[in-house]
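Long-time lurker, finally posting.

We've been working with RING-type domain-containing protein (Hanusia phi) and I want a structural starting point before designing mutants. I don't trust myself to interpret raw outputs, so I'm hoping someone here can both generate the structure tokens and explain anything notable. Sequence follows.
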Amino acid sequence: AYFSQRLIEEQRQLSRSSDVTSSSGEAGAASAVADDNVLEQITARITSKLKDELKKELAKEEKEMIQQKDRQQGEMECFLAGELEQATCPICYELMKAPKNTPTLLFPCGHTFCIECLNSHIKLNSRGTCPYCRVKIQNQAPNLQLQQLIDGFAGRKEEIIKKVEKVTRDAAESADSTNSFSLRNVSLSDREQLEDYRREWRTVSMRYRIYTNEAKDCDAEIKEMESKLEATRIVRKHLHGELEDAFKRMQKLQEEIDFIESQLHQQKEKEKDLDADIMAKRKRMNLVNTTKDSLEMERAKIRLLVEHSIPDDVDVFLES
Ligand SMILES: [Zn+2]
Ligand SMILES: [Zn+2]
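Top reply, 14 upvotes:
Generated this for you. Predicted structure of RING-type domain-containing protein:
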């Protein structure tokens, strides 16, 4: 647009000057023809000059545009590489590179951690919640897209920075200071420094929140355990009481057992005594019977003698 306007302006100037020539006037037809020729020549010369200039400017502009595009792309890659270098696990700060630190996406909250930290978190955290937002984890899967980006860019930051610097230098060498790279006035290192601070802030904040969550969880778990401990103490006290009662009952039973045993003993003694008494009586009975038998024989003998003297009145005689 700039060049076409210039072309129009030049032509306008030319036509104005031809007006002046024609209006100044009485120079005659021949001179007017000569004027026309000169005018044509001048116009042709200017046109071709302008064309060349235009071509040059266009070529330059194109080159600058390509350079700018290269630079922007380079910056983009550089930014991406930087960003991905920050794709570290918020728990261990390791770059989430497979297979050890494979980035693992949680469902449904969408947060990503390295697989190693996630596994140990799940082992410790009985609730199974996201370390960052504490939403219950329903499922998890490797974050393949992030993994591909990390594999492709991370670790190449230096290389990409060098590329960007070269493009920037080339552009600075060839550019007119007028129209390009005013953006460059903010130095790359300042912007990078700020960007670094932002990333660091984000990482540290995320980590801070994770640890705050863990502290909360620990606190809750401790309280839970403490109340469990209290309950166990009460049960233990109760059991102590039971044990004492049981001891008492056992003591009573022991006393009962002792009593019964002593009774048994006494009964045994009694049996023994009675046995002995019975034996003694039996002996005595035998003795008595023997004596009785001999007395019986004696009586029979006497009766026989009496019968012999008074046969009819024996019984009357002996009983009286
Ligand atoms: Zn980790
Ligand atoms: Zn989460």
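Before you design anything, note these points.
Confidence is low (pLDDT under 50) at residues 21-25, 177-184.
Residues 61-177+184-220 form a domain with the Herpes Virus-1 fold (CATH 3.30.40.10).
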